[in-house]
Amino acid sequence: MTNDKGIIIKNIYYMLSYAFQVLKQTNYEEVAAEEFEQAQDLFAAILAKGTARQLKQGLYREYITQRETLFVMRGKLDMPKTIRNKVQRKQRLACEFDELSENNLFNQILKTTMKLLVQDEGVNAERKRALNKVLVFFDHVTILEPSKIQWSRLRYQRSNRNYEMLLNICYLVLDGMLQTTEKGTYRMAAFSDKHMARLYEKFILEYYRQKHTYLSEVRAAQVPWNLVGENEEAMIRLLPVMQTDIMLRLNDKVLIIDAKYYGKTLQHQFEKYSLHSGNVYQIFTYVKNYDKDGTGNVAGLLLYAKTQEDIVPDCSFNMGGNRIGARTLDLNQNFKHITEQLDKIAEAYFGG
To answer: Which BP terms in the Gene Ontology apply to this protein (predicted)?
Structure first.
């Protein structure tokens, strides 16, 4: 089974299917049944299927401002340009008008990504043919410079909600894998740790939300600071936000999980391996501030994605009445075993 940085490629698909439930729909069944040599091959398969489905519903269109010189007035008249036309004896009106167009940022990103995947050696011939079939319908859509894409301009609403998963895949490809060569061309590299870390967090959160429905709360919650006495609002604003990755609750018991995806799960100093000090301080702070009454009902867990290191953390401590632990989740195994590991974590703390 082929892997990317110690992760079976197929497991990236399963993780994505929890992050984006649309991948569990029937038209993606063929993708779920296939094996992939490279991450970009997987992303190409998803985009080919998803875009073909979108074409049946119609590509998203939005109003784009057009500027043209016409014989008949349309929209708003550009007076200075029209006067220049008159001076040059051109009997045309300079007009500015809005027109529904498929040549918008959503479709431009989609086309740009598919074009790059078609050119990549890591995508197999069958997937390239599937992408080329859908690219025929993007003739009037502009290709963008990947490094100049303004991702923050994307705004999702009812009419383009179907694009959310597709453009997140595009983001993983263009922002997470694409590298520029010395010749100015593009090539695909391994899936970046930064983007894999976000997917790892999202997967764990959504897995517990979808599969452990007995829990009374599953969310990425903020922990309030346990401040004593009078505190000025201006001073409180100086404190950093304590944002958890995953918070699980069953009645009065709470488990805070901090998902960590690093190249190395342990730090090595003075011939000794230890947990990353910053990680321990962080989870300890979350737990102690959330358990402001000192009940001991709040626990914390550092959940590292397992690396190919020989020594990995598997420990639990009682720190001032609260359980603080560190474990690894092996992503380079059958996905069923991954979910079993997550189930055992919840069962160990909440019972079941």
So the answer is: DNA restriction-modification system
User: In this structure, which amino acid lies at residue 223?
Assistant: V
Contacts of 233 (CB under 8 A, 6+ apart): none
* Helix, strand, coil in percent for the chain, rounding step 5: 45, 20, 35
DSSP 265: S
pLDDT tens-digit map of 157-204: 999 999 999 999 999 999 888 776 655 566 666 777 888 999 999 999
Q: What is the DSSP string of 200-249?
A: HHHHHHHHHHHH-TTSSEEE-PEEPP---S---HHHHTTSPPEE-SEEEE
What is the residue-wise DSSP string for 24-39? GSGGGHHHHH---SSH
The candidate with the shortest Cα–Cα distance to 51, out of 132, 124, 120, is: 132
The Cα–Cα gap between 342 and 282 comes to 22
> Distance of CA 17 to CAs 20, 63, 70, 169, 202, Å?
5, 32, 49, 12, 11
What confidence tens digit (pLDDT) does each residue in 48-59 have? 999 999 999 999
Burial (Cβ within 10 Å: 0-12, 13-18, ≥19) of residue 202: buried
Question: In 3-state terms, what secondary structure has residue 150?
Answer: coil
SS3 state at 339: helix
Cβ proximity of 330 and 319 under 8 Å:
no
CA 70 vs. chain centroid, Å, equals: 45
pTM of the model: 0.84
Torsion sign over Cα 17, 23, 29, 35: negative
Q: Domains for the chain: give ranges and CATH numbers.
A: 3-60+103-191 (no CATH), 62-101 (no CATH), 195-350 (3.40.1350.10)
Structure confidence by residue, pLDDT tens digits, 234-277: 778 889 999 999 999 999 999 999 999 987 777 777 778 888 89
